């Protein structure tokens, strides 16, 4: 497989720093992502652009103390390819930090190799909670979200405001089962009741009418969608045709990205509820990040939470590397992650936050609702915030994940 590479991002150090810059070791970041498959819109070119933006800004702020190179490749969502590429990057190409790695199985494979090689993994794309659970690593930080957070931030607030009966439409494979199980657990813990569920054949289903009719017949106040990608888009479009929301049921997607809202369009997506870790129009800082991503990198689509995570995690790692010394950071990935955990996080994508002992990056979560066409002020004005879940409540408690790094 031919690996796509890009030359080092040029460091614009001033003349007084020239000699020092020449002696500074180069930090190499490898963005392993989906550039042509089903997750290309939520990761892909946006993840590469966001990582490059963070590298440029960190180098500019360092006064010549940092030199950073960004390379990238399409792992085609294959765990064996991801594992081989990780080894090749580290052993042959001198990559210090692995970024993104779309897909939970590929991420877990990469997680093992990075720990074995004592490098750093910034897990911004995968949603598996195992990265901060049984398979947590001193070399890995899971930056953006996980399935526990998505189910928690979606179900608990909806039950609290009266959405206390649920029906799930679930993709019949491991991811769908996990999302339904997590969602059901949070509904019941919050005092609600799950009236039923229906599972459809994955990935061979394109007509969701029978499953939507069952959800409608249940009279549940909330219909939870435990699916993703193309299935989710098709299901929401057909739910709009059935008029589920107009007839009083609420539609909650347990794993929705802003790129999918754009693909749906407001007429079909209006009223849809989802949990998010990042929204481009949240405040002045998130809007500034989005503007810089467009102006500096030419990436025009609205950034997803994964893109924001690529920027935020890279920036924080480079701050930690500069603080401890580049040579030391390159030599010991676990030490670099320990320094990251010791430093508070702060950037335009997520604001202030922290990193726990299990590698979980903490920041608030948001329950969003898609606006109607009449509510929208124009292109990009897609969602409104219904609830803010504080960082300490958004993610799984530290003592419940089973991470061996956590001493109880």
Structural write-up:
With 408 residues, this protein is α/β, with parallel strands linked by helices. The protein has 2 domains: 15-145 and 282-363, Rossmann fold, CATH 3.40.50; 148-276 and 364-394, Response regulator (Rossmann fold, 3-Layer(aba) Sandwich). The protein is 42% helix and 19% strand. The chain is built from 15 helices and 15 strands. The chain has helices at residues 18-23, 44-62, 79-91, 104-117, 147-160, 174-189, 209-218, 229-242, 258-264, 266-269, 284-297, 305-324, 326-331, 333-342, 391-394, and strands at residues 26-33, 67-74, 97-100, 120-123, 140-142, 165-171, 193-200, 222-226, 250-253, 273-276, 345-347, 351-355, 361-362, 365-370, 383-389. A 7-stranded mixed sheet has the order 7-6-8-9-10-14-15, with helices on both faces. Helix 5 packs parallel to helix 6 (174-189). The longest helix is centred in the last third of the chain and has 20 residues, at 305-324. The chain is globular, with a radius of gyration of 21 Å. Residues 1-21 have low confidence and may be disordered.
Order of helices and strands: HEHEHEHEEHEHEHEHEHHEHHHHEEEEEH
Radius of gyration: 21 Å
Fraction of residues in β-strands: 15-25%
Structural class category: alpha/beta
Question: What's the helical proportion of residues?
Answer: 40-55%
Given the structure, what is the number of helices? 15
């Amino acid at each position: 497989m031919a690996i796509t590479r890009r030359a080092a991002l040029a460091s614009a150090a001033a003349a007084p720093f020239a000699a020092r810059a020449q002696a500074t070791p180069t930090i190499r970041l490898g963005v392993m992502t989906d550039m042509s498959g089903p997750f290309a819109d939520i990761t892909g070119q946006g993840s590469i652009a966001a990582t490059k933006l963070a590298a440029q800004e960190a180098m500019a702020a360092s006064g010549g103390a940092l030199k950073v190179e960004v390379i990238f490749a399409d792992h085609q969502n294959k765990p064996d390819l991801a594992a081989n590429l990780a080894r090749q990057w580290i052993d042959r190409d001198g990559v210090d930090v692995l970024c993104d790695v779309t897909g939970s199985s590929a991420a877990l494979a990469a997680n093992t190799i990075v720990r074995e090689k004592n490098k750093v993994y910034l897990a911004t794309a995968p949603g598996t909670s195992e990265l901060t659970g049984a398979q947590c690593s001193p070399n890995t930080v899971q930056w953006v979200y996980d399935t526990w957070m998505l189910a928690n931030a979606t179900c608990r607030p909806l039950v609290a405001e009266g959405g206390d009966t649920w029906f799930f439409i679930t993709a019949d494979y491991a991811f769908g089962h996990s999302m339904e199980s997590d969602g059901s657990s949070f509904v019941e813990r919050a005092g609600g009741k799950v009236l039923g569920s229906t599972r459809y054949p994955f990935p061979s289903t394109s007509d969701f009418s029978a499953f939507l009719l069952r959800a409608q017949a249940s009279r549940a106040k909330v219909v939870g969608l435990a699916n993703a990608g193309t299935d989710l888009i098709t299901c929401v479009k057909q739910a709009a045709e059935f008029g589920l929301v107009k007839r009083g049921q609420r539609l909650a997607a347990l794993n929705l990205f802003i790129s999918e809202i754009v693909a749906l369009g407001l007429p079909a997506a209006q009223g849809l509820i989802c949990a998010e870790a990042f929204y481009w129009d949240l405040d002045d800082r998130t809007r500034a990040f989005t503007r810089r991503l467009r102006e500096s990198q030419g990436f025009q689509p609205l950034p997803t939470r994964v893109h924001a995570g690529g920027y935020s995690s890279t920036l924080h790692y480079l701050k930690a590397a500069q603080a401890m010394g580049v040579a030391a950071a390159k030599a010991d990935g676990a030490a670099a992650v320990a320094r990251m955990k010791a430093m508070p996080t702060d950037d335009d994508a997520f604001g202030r936050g922290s990193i726990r002992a299990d590698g979980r990056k903490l920041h608030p979560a948001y329950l969003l609702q898609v606006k109607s066409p009449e509510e929208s002020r124009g292109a990009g004005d897609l969602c409104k915030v219904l609830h803010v879940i504080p960082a300490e409540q958004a993610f799984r408690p530290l003592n419940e994940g089973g991470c061996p790094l956590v001493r109880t």
